[in-house]
Amino acid sequence: MIQEIIIGLVFLVAISYIGRVIYRSFQAKHTCASGCGKCGEIDEKLTSAGR
User: Minimal CA–CA distance to 34: which of 42, 23, 26, 22?
Assistant: First the structure.
């Protein structure tokens, strides 16, 4: 009985992980490929300087 519960929990964790990966693959990506997060700051400075 306890083995079935453990297997069920492992299965639920695996399904939720796969669901999370699929969900995140459809989310919009707002950063550049490097992932440093500086591109947004640079764009923001350029637009505010142009005003």
Answer: 42
pLDDT at position 48 over 70: no
Apex CA 37: angle with CA 47 and CA 39, to 5°?
35
What are the pLDDT digits (tens) for 1-43?
999 999 999 999 999 999 999 998 887 666 566 666 566 665 5
The answer for residues whose C-beta is within 8 angstroms of residue 37's C-beta and 6 or more apart is 31
Q: In this structure, are residues 32 and 39 in contact, taking their beta carbons and an 8 Å threshold?
A: yes
One-letter amino acid at 8 equals: G
